[in-house]
């Protein structure tokens, strides 16, 4: 075993000279290992070794964004760009969540000749991103040691004793030691990577999914991240509509075995961790990728609802469109809210099909036209200049996401041509994980970023009255 202590690795500071007028210390990661000694990568098992006893969980995880967290080409390219622009300061910050094993074993290497901007390699189980070994080796959270006293930036403590931690208090050991972990039953477990702060800029929250949940009605109802993201989409819909944790739903149908040879349990969590990304897994062609993409689309198509009405006068009508975040337990969108895009496409036509108004229709080059209403945060650097590189983002100049169980209304003034009284309104709400310009910047091959129609409505009007 290597004798270098993680305290030296994780508490050391690196200047983030490229970002600020006065360089500030930049912590490598909040990750630690329980015994304080850097482990060997061989101490962590390949996820495939879990498949024999936990086939349901392995099937759910395989092809998930967790499983490809390290090899995701969009992440790899952005990470590589950060490596070059910050002289390596972002390596462990990003790696702490995307390859916790690679980070604590210090087996992550940067290859400048690989990919468009370079690329990273690691070894064995460390290549499997957020794997079984990562989550079930978590013994604690390091919130008491973080600079801002909040979960985030991989604020995890891993154990290397071979025991697997989990939410079952009466689990029987079969093949490895088992330890009950209350942390695994709570959203605080997920918070350690689903809050990301820029420590150069006063720990500015680049991603704040956990905080969004914490401030939501879901948290007040004791509905955890696991209640929506570790169950089928249909169950997540019920959780949001009934505002109950999954285990409290009547006839939820989630029973089964936690492992081969075990007894029947009332509720077994699937390990799909489905969110909104339907792009990367199919792009990589990994096993299970298409299935996860289909689930992501289904989830996106159950999250929001639209309402529309026309106000004003016959001479100066105003279309008012309201977007409701019905079933996301956090903001819409969430995660990198300055990269994700949720937008409205609105078309108004007369009774002959002639166009009166159009907004938000993608251009021929798959871009959003000027004037599109986008529910998205606007990120800027220390000089107030628009910025999408996470290591340069100092704040959000505009915040325009929709909170859980909240809504936002947008107005579209328009003019009816002389003699026109009948008209039709078509409204669509779209989602995509990133703009086409981001794909063009980061990826070597040309990839057209797909958008997903989340929901839509059509209404016909006569003057300003709904037919």
From TrEMBL:
Domain Cytochrome c-552/4: 50-137
Keyword field contains rRNA-binding: no
First and last residue of the signal peptide: 1-20
Keywords (A to Z) from UniProt: Signal
Record InterPro entries: Cyt_c-552/4, Multihaem_cyt_sf
This protein's record includes keyword Signal: yes
SUPFAM superfamilies from the UniProt entry: Multiheme cytochromes
Record-given protein name: Multiheme c-type cytochrome
